[in-house]
Structure formats: structure tokens, C-alpha cells
Write a structure and sequence with these properties.
The structure is a single chain. By secondary structure, the protein is mainly alpha-helical. The protein has two domains: 37 residues; 87 residues, no CATH class. It is built from four helices and two strands, in the order αααββα. The protein has a two-stranded antiparallel sheet. It is flat, with a radius of gyration of 21 Å. The N and C termini lie far apart (56 Å). The model has no long low-confidence stretch (mean pLDDT 94).
Length: 125
């Protein structure tokens, strides 16, 4: 049920993005609203989980580097105190994947910036 809702919502957003250059969050929410319904309990649980994640991510060392990371089993690993190489390896894999994704995204944005600048220079030159 949720998977089908996600698929339909994604298709709707993808179709509408053809006509919107800079979609606002509220527009996307309005597009997907018909595909989802939640109980108050579900919303409360989700919000509490988000708050818990936020709180845990706020614990940092003196150099402002996070101390706790959530593993795939829903357990927080304290990287300053953990001696479990398996846990530390899982955190390393998780962070490496995020780093790779961010590096690719940064590269994509910078290439686009360069393209826009080049196009601007050609128009003016």
C-alpha cells in the first residue's frame, strides 16, 4: 500500500516538474497529499522519531564533530567510546556513502555553474 502510494506520488511530482522550474515545498506537498493518509498516532510517532534523531545528532565533540551515528538496526553507536570494529565499520561505510553522494552532487552543481558562466561569457563576448 505505502509502496504503491510512493510510486504514484513520485510519478505525479515527476510529471508536474516538467512545468515548474523552481517548485516550492508546499507545492510538492499539495501534489502528494491525495496519495497519503496518516493517523494522529502515526504522525506523533514519526515526529518523535525525528526529534530523537535531531537530539542524537546534536551531540558533538569539542571540534563540533558528531559523536553518535545510527546503524541499520536502530542502535546509536558512540564513535568515541565504541570498541566494536563491526559497529565502527558500519558507521564508516554509512559516512563514506554519504560523502560519495555529496561529492557527486557538489561536482554536478559546480559543472552547472561553470556551464552557466560559460554561456553568459559567450553571449557577452
Amino acid at each position: 500500500m505505502i509502496r504503491e502510494s510512493n510510486k504514484k506520488a513520485r510519478e505525479t511530482v515527476e510529471e508536474n516538474l516538467k512545468y515548474i522550474d523552481k517548485p516550492e515545498l508546499c507545492e510538492i506537498v499539495d501534489m502528494i497529499r491525495p496519495y497519503y493518509s496518516f493517523t494522529k498516532e502515526q504522525l506523533m510517532e514519526r515526529e518523535l522519531r525525528n526529534k530523537a534523531r535531531y537530539i542524537m545528532s546534536s551531540f558533538k565533540d569539542g571540534e563540533k564533530i558528531r559523536t553518535y551515528y545510527l546503524n541499520n538496526d536502530g542502535v546509536y553507536i558512540n564513535i568515541e567510546k565504541s570498541t566494536d570494529l563491526g559497529d565502527l565499520d558500519k558507521v564508516d561505510i554509512q559516512l563514506s556513502a554519504k560523502y560519495s553522494g555529496l561529492t557527486a552532487a557538489i561536482s554536478k552543481v559546480r559543472n552547472r555553474i561553470d556551464g552557466v558562466i560559460d554561456r553568459f561569457k559567450r553571449r557577452r563576448g
